[in-house]
């Protein structure tokens, strides 16, 4: 409780201008800190928009993604239509070939989205939701420690002045 009181008193004295205030960060680091908020906002919004662009279900394995993808469903429909019409008809051959091609396209899309999720989406999430909040938390902790240090300096200098002014007998 006493430590909190001293911290508040030191903060009030610094605000009024009666106490010496130690600068926590240099000018360059203050600019970086301001930019940090912008980076957090941009990475968070980019993460959300990028997730919205992905067609497959995020976080599931390749086979589950494949079953839900519209290209895969279209490929299955074409291959079923080819089976119904038979390999002998021209339309049946075309549907079979188109179905195989759609299936390959679906597999490529799934592979691409998986790589995007692994290489871009997850790092953006970690940056926006883990790394930047940790940096901000450490910055607040540093400011608190600097305030404690200034408070301790003020008390020490006050004690030294008191002992010099009124020597003990």
Automatic annotation (TrEMBL):
Gene Ontology terms for molecular function: GTPase activator activity
UniProt superkingdom: Eukaryota
InterPro entries per record: AH/BAR_dom_sf, BAR_dom, RHG17/44/SH3BP1-like
One Pfam family this sequence matches: BAR
CC per GO annotation: cytoplasm; dendritic spine; leading edge membrane; postsynaptic density; presynaptic active zone
Keyword rRNA-binding: no
Boundaries of every BAR domain copy: 14-169
Gene Ontology BP term (one): regulation of actin cytoskeleton organization
UniProt keyword terms in alphabetical order: GTPase activation
Protein name according to UniProt: Rho GTPase activating protein 44
Organism of this sequence: Oreochromis niloticus
